[in-house]
Amino acid sequence: MLFSATLENSLSKTHVPSNREVEQILTRKLSHIAPEPDFAGLWDLNDHRLGHVSQVLSASQDTREAILTDLAQGRFREAYGIEKAGMSFAAKMSLLAQSLNEQKLYSLFASEEAAHFHFIQAVLGDPPDLSKDPFIQFLNELIISAERRPLLFIIQVVLEGWGLDHYAGMLKSCKQASFKGPLQQILSDEAAHHGSGLSLFQEDELSQSELKYTLEMMSAFLDMVRIGPVGLMHTLDSHLGGLTTAQKQAVLTEMDAVEDTTRKLNLLKGLMQKAQAKQILAELEAKSAFTLLF
Ligand SMILES: [Fe+2]
Ligand SMILES: [Fe+2]
């Protein structure tokens, strides 16, 4: 109980600075690239699957730039929440580790998540308000409430595997050279976080209650994917002055949303297969948890 209260405090804190000595130590230990991002220039419309969306193409140059800025910042806002949560996650897993070497591993991961978080902080400048971000709230809830084995599966196998795909896409299409190195570093660190989760997770070690919990949380996560690009639609809607239902449908068609969301759901299925999570996968499939909801 004390443990979850501690985690809750850890995940909800927003205060950034510490005292002068601490700041100096961090300055020495962390690399300092001040990327000065041109958010609108980081990724183009095609990189957000908007290159064929007529509502966007016919908007003014200013509106298109505002959309690109908002979407790029959105990627970093989400990454801020993920990397921040990653520090608390690694700390919890370190305390729950079953061997000293496993504890070393999670202590190293915690330091990597701190470096990732530091980079994202530098990119964004001001801390974002993520209190209404459903995915970040879900992630925080998971880190507070899950036991070690469901965490191995949901966070390391599924979410860090999913994150790898996300960061790889960001890196591949990124137009600003100064972002490539830090994104590449995050990608290779996350590959090890995911890989260790794959090797440590054994489905048959889950207790009945852990299995039940894992299925519930995975269903909740899959529901957020199955509804399609809702966040992106919300961004477009706010910049384009309100889209009708027919216009929204046209946007989804022009951006191949069905194809893209199907690819994501298949990727998630593939991650579960890689972890030999046969029962979890079978139960989720029996509940039609991978079918589209739009
Ligand atoms: Fe990370
Ligand atoms: Fe990670």
Question: How would you summarize this macromolecular structure in one to three sentences?
Answer:
This protein has 294 residues and is an all-alpha fold. 74% of the residues lie in helices and 0% in strands. It has helices at 2-12, 20-29, 39-42, 54-57, 61-96, 100-124, 134-145, 148-173, 177-200, 208-226, 230-239, 245-254, 257-274, 278-286.
Structure commentary:
- With 294 residues, the protein is mainly alpha-helical.
- The protein is globular, with a radius of gyration of 20 Å.
- The mean pLDDT is 96.
- The protein contains 14 helices and no strands.
- One fe (ii) ion binds at residues 86, 113, 160, 190, 193.
Summarize the helices and strands and which ones pair or pack.
Layout lengths: L1 H11 L7 H10 L9 H4 L11 H4 L3 H36 L3 H25 L9 H12 L2 H26 L3 H24 L7 H19 L3 H10 L5 H10 L2 H18 L3 H9 L8
Helix pairs in contact: 1-7, 5-6, 5-7, 5-11, 6-9, 7-10, 8-9, 8-10, 8-13
The site of one fe (ii) ion (FE2) has 5 residues, from helix 9.
